[in-house]
Description:
CATH architecture of the largest domain: 3-Layer(aba) Sandwich
Oligomer: single chain
Helix content: 40-55%
Distance between the termini: 89 Å
Strand content: 5-15%
CATH class of the largest domain: Alpha Beta
Number of strands: 20
Number of helices: 35
Structural class: alpha/beta
Strand order of the largest sheet: 3-5-6-7-4-8
Radius of gyration: 40 Å
Largest sheet: 6 strands, mixed
Low-confidence stretches: 140-163, 613-622
CATH topology of the largest domain: Rossmann fold
Number of domains: 5
Amino acid sequence: MISKGLSAILSFAVKEARRRRHEYVCVEHILYAILRDSGGIELIEVCGGNVENIQNELEKFFNEKLEKIPADKEYVLQQTMQFQRVIQRAVNHVRSVEKDAVYIGDILASMLEEKNSHAAYFMAAEGITRLDVLNVISHGSRGETFKDGPDPGLLTTRKDKKRPLDPLEAFTLDLVDRAVNGKLDPLIGRFGEMERTIHVLCRRRKNNPVFVGEPGVGKTAMAEGLAQKIARGDVPEFLKDARIFSLDLGALLAGTKYRGDFEQRLKAVISALLKREKAILFIDEIHTIIGAGATSSGTMDASNILKPALATGELRCIGSTTYEEFKRFFEKDRAFARRFEKIDICEPSIDDTVRILKGLKACYEDHHQITYTDQALKTACELSAKHINERYLPDKAIDVMDEAGVLLRLSGGSRRKRVQPSDIEKVVSKIARIPTRSVSTSDKASLEHLEERLKEKIFGQDDAIASLVKAIKRSRAGLGAQERPIGSFLFTGPTGVGKTEVARQIARILGVQFLRFDMSEYMEKHAVARLIGAPPGYIGFEQGGLLTDQIRKSPYSVLLLDEIEKAHIDMYSILLQVMDHAALTDNNGKTADFRNVILIMTSNAGAREMVSHAIGFGGDSIGNAAGKGKKAIEEFFSPEFRNRLDDIINFRSLDMNIMERVVDKFIDELTPLLAVKKIDLSLSPAARQWLAKHGFDLHFGARPLDRLIQKEIKDVLTDEILFGKLVKGGKVLVKVVGDRLVFAYS
C-alpha cells in the first residue's frame, strides 16, 4: 500500500531519528525526510512553500525541543501517536478514493490535519494548506512524478510561487531571439506580402494578419522573415524592438487532464503577452486552436479566449493556415475570422523559386559540405514543378536540392563536390517514381523528333500530325499566347482512325501525364458540376472538382476530353474559360493552372458526312467530303467555341494501303507478350494482306482489324499456349491457304 518512494522516505525518517538519538520518531522527522527528497521539494515549492525556511525551523525544533538519549545508553526507538495517525489517515484516504498506493502528497495532506504538530505549523507559516496539497495531487501529481519536473501550468499560475516560471518561456518560442542567433533560414522575395503584413500589424484595430496558402509555399517562413527584419532593425519605428512568440500548442495541451487546465495556461500566456510591450503572438496552423481545449460544443475553446484580446487591438497575432482549413474551420467562425486580415501567400513561379534556392544555397552547402551549380538549382525548380505532383514550390524544390546534397555527400567513391543537373535528375526520378530517361530539363530533343515518332505509331494521318506538331512547337518557342494552354485542339474524323492514340502518344513522347475524361459520363447538367466540384449544399461540396484536382496534381499533362460532342452544353462554357485564360476555379475558390496543358478534344461530329462523300471516283469527292464534314462541325460547335481553338484537325479515313502498316503495328504490340512465353511469331506477306483486307472497314477505322487479330490469331494461340504445341514455347508462322489463315509450328 505504501509506494516505494514513500517507503524510502519513512526509512530515512527513522534512521534520522536514531542518528540524532531521539527517543521518538515523530511527524517532524517525516517532514524532514520529505524535504531531502527531490520529489518532496518540488511538491512543497509548487504549493508555495520555501524549503530552506522549513528546514531551518526543523533543525531548531530538533535541537531545542527534543531530548537526546545519551550515546552509551541502549534504547528502542518508539513511534509517536501523531506519527501513527498520519500514516493511518493517509492509508484510509487512499482506500476511500480507490488509489493504488500512498504517495508523498497523501502523507503531507494527512500531516496538515495534525493541527497541534510543529510540522503542520511550519508548513502553515509558509502559506501551505491542505487544500493546496489536495489540489496538486488531484491533478494526478503524486510526489514522485515531480522528479521529471513540475507541471508548468501550475507553476505559472500560482501567485504565491517563490520562483515563478515565465509562461512565454514554457509555451512559446522567441523567433526574434532565434533570428539573432542565426537559427532561421533567410526569407527570399515576398516583398509585397511582407509590406502588407507590416501595414496590418501597425493598424490600431484588427492588427492581426493571417497567411493563407497551400502547404509548402512559405507561410511559416513569412513569420520567420519578419523576425529577421525586426532583429536587423529593418522595420518601422512602431515595430522596432518587437518580439514574436511562436505558440507551442502541443506544450500548452500536454498534461491538461482536467477542465480548466488548458484555459488557465492560455490565459497565463495572453496575460504575459499583454504585459510585454510590442509582443506579437504567432500561431502556426491557427485553425487548430478552433476547438482546442473544448470537450463539447458548449465549452469555450482557445479561439474564444483569444477573441477579446484580438478585438481590442491590445494583442497582435499572426496566423497561418491553408485554403482548405481556412474554409473548413476559420470561415465558419465568423466572429473569429473577422478579427484577422487575410493575406494570400501564392505559390512562387519557377523564376522566383530559383532566386529562393540561390538565397538558401549557402545554408545547405555548409550543412552538406558541397556546392551547387546555378544550373543544378534551376534544374531542381523546373523538374520538381514538372514531375512532383500534389506538392508546391518552393518546398518541393528545396527538398530536391537538399536530397541531391545528401546523395552526393554519401556517395563514398565520388570525390566530386559540386551538385550537377544530372544529380538533380536522379533525385527527381526517385521521388516521382519515373524512369531517369523521362526526366529532362528540356524537351527540345523530344520536340525535334516528335513528328517522326508520332508517324511511327499513327498511320495515314500525316497532315493532321504535321498541323499538331507545328502548334506545339510554336508554343514551346514562346511565340504562342502566354496566358493560354500550350495548345487547344479539336480532333475530328471517323471512329478508329487514331485520334485518341495521338493524344496518348504525345504524352508518352513528351514524358508528361496523360489525363483522359470520357465525355459520355457528363451528358447531364449535374454531372458537369463534378468537374469543378459540387455547389454548396450538395454532397461532395468540400471535395473539390475532378478536373481541377487532376490538373493541380499534374500541371504538366496532356488532357484528353474524349467524344466532346456527347457532353452537356455547360461543358463548353467551362472550356471557354480554359482555352481563353488557361485557368479554372473550383467550388472552393482554388484555381487550376492550364498553361502547361495540351488540351485535346476528340469528336465524331461530321464523320458520317465525310465518310459517305469520300466513296466515289475522282479527287473532287474527297474535297467535297471535307467540305461537308467542316459544315457539320460548324453547325454543331458554336462560333465562340471554334474561335478559341488553335486548330481543328481532321483525321482521314484509313485506306487499304495503310491497313498493312496497321497490321504490323498490332503484331509488334503482340510480339513482346509472346516473347515472355518464348514464342516467336511471324506472318507471311500473304497473311498480312489477308488481315488487312478482311480487317478493313471505311466507317470504323482500325478497330475492326484489332478485333480480327484477336479472333483469328490471339484466340488460336491461346489454346496452343495453354494446352497444345506452344506450352514450352516455339516458333509460329502464319500463312494463307485458300482463304483462311494456317499456323505452322516448329
